[in-house]
C-alpha cells in the first residue's frame, strides 16, 4: 500500500481533533481519497470520533437565539460516516439531526459566541453542507445551506458584491477546515446544484487557474505544482544534510510526488476505491 495511506491509517496518540494527526483529520483525508470500506483500524477511529462529538462534555450554547458550535467538526464526522455507509447508525443520525437543529436563519452555522454576530461562517458552514448532502435525509437543511453559498456567488459579499477574502480564490489541498472556491464548488456539486447560474463566476475562475487549459491532469494546477516543488526542495535538503544517500532515497523519505487527478477518477488503491460521489468539478457537471 502507498506509504501515505499507511500513515493515515496509523494510530497516533492524543485527542481525535489533534492537528493534523488526530483521527478526525485522518479519516477525512481517507474518505477524500476514496475510502468506502472500514477495517478494524478505521472502525476504531470512527468510534473515537463519534464518542468525542456526541459526548456530554461538548456543550452548545444558545446565544441571541442562535446555536453557536464548531459545526464543521460534526459536518466532517457526518461526511466520513456517510462515505463509509453508516447512514443508519443512530449516532450518525444524531449528528445529522443536531446540524439541522443548529442551522442559523441564513442557512449556515457559526461558532462565534459574540451576541451581536448574526451571519454564518463560510468555514463552519462548508462541512455541514457536505455532510448533510452525503446523508440525504435532510433535504430542506441541505438546500438552505447550499443557498447560503449561492447567494454569495461562492466568494462575494451578498450586500456589497466585493470579494470577501482574496485567499479564497487560491486553491489549497488539503484545506482542512479552511474555505476556498474549489471546496465550495465541490460541496455545491455534491448537493446537485453546480449548474446554478450563481456558480458561473467561481467556475470560470477555477478554469482560469489551469496552467495549460487544453490538458486535464491535476498536475496543471498551481496548488499541486507548488506541492511538488516543496517536496523536491525537501529531497535536496535531506541529501545535502547527509540524511539520505541519494535522490531516490530522499524521495522515498519525503514521499514521492506523483501527479494525480483533482479527485480520483476510477480504479482502486489498496482498499481505497474511488466513487462518483467524490464531487469532481468539471465541465460535464456544469
Description:
By secondary structure, the chain is mainly alpha-helical. The protein has a single domain, classed as Glycosyltransferase (Alpha/alpha barrel). 45% of the residues lie in helices and 3% in strands. The protein contains 11 helices and 4 strands, in the order H-H-H-E-E-H-H-H-H-H-H-H-H-E-E. The chain has helices spanning 3-9, 23-32, 40-53, 71-83, 90-102, 122-135, 139-151, 181-190, 200-208, 222-240, 247-254, and strands at 62-63, 66-67, 268-269, 272-273. The longest helix has 19 residues, at 222-240. The two termini are 35 Å apart.
Indicate the structural class: mainly alpha
User: What is the mean predicted local confidence, pLDDT?
Assistant: 84
Which fold name fills CATH's third level, the topology?
Answer: Glycosyltransferase
End-to-end separation: 35 Å
Q: pLDDT under 50 segments (min length 5)? A: 255-280
Count of helical segments? Answer: 11
What does the radius of gyration come to?
Answer: 20 Å
Instruction: Write the element-wise H/E pattern from the N-terminal end onward.
Output: HHHEEHHHHHHHHEE
- Beta percentage is under 5%
Q: Name the helicity range.
A: 40-55%
Strand order of the largest sheet: 1-2
The CATH class, by name, is Mainly Alpha
Major sheet characteristics: 2 strands, antiparallel
Number of domains: 1
State the CATH architecture.
Answer: Alpha/alpha barrel
Q: Using the alpha-carbon principal axes, give the shape.
A: globular
Tally of strands: 4
Amino acid at each position: 500500500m502507498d506509504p501515505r495511506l499507511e500513515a493515515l491509517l496509523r494510530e497516533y496518540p492524543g485527542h481525535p481533533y489533534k492537528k493534523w494527526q488526530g483521527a478526525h483529520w485522518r479519516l477525512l483525508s481517507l474518505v477524500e481519497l476514496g475510502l468506502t470500506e472500514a477495517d478494524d483500524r478505521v472502525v476504531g477511529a470512527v468510534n473515537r470520533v463519534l464518542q468525542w462529538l456526541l459526548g456530554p462534555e461538548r456543550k452548545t450554547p444558545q446565544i441571541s437565539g442562535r446555536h453557536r458550535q464548531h459545526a464543521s467538526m460534526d459536518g466532517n464526522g457526518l461526511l466520513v460516516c456517510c462515505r463509509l455507509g453508516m447512514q443508519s447508525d443512530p449516532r450518525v443520525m444524531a449528528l445529522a439531526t443536531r446540524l439541522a437543529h443548529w442551522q442559523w436563519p441564513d442557512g449556515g452555522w457559526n461558532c462565534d459566541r459574540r451576541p451581536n454576530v448574526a451571519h454564518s461562517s463560510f468555514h463552519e458552514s462548508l462541512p455541514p453542507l457536505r455532510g448533510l448532502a452525503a446523508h440525504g435525509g435532510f433535504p430542506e437543511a441541505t438546500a438552505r445551506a447550499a443557498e447560503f453559498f449561492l447567494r454569495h456567488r461562492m466568494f462575494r459579499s451578498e450586500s456589497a458584491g466585493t470579494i470577501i477574502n482574496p485567499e479564497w480564490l487560491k486553491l489549497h489541498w488539503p484545506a482542512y477546515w479552511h474555505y476556498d472556491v474549489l471546496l465550495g464548488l465541490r460541496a455545491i456539486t455534491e448537493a446537485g446544484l453546480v449548474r446554478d447560474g450563481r456558480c458561473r463566476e467561481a467556475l470560470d475562475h477555477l478554469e482560469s487557474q489551469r496552467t495549460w487549459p487544453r490538458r486535464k491532469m491535476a498536475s496543471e494546477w498551481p496548488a499541486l505544482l507548488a506541492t511538488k516543488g516543496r517536496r523536491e526542495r525537501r529531497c535536496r535538503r535531506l541529501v545535502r544534510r547527509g540524511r539520505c544517500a541519494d535522490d531516490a532515497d530522499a524521495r522515498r523519505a519525503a514521499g514521492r510526488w506523483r501527479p494525480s487527478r483533482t479527485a480520483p477518477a476510477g480504479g482502486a488503491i489498496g482498499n481505497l476505491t474511488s466513487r462518483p460521489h467524490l464531487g469532481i468539478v468539471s465541465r460535464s457537471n456544469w
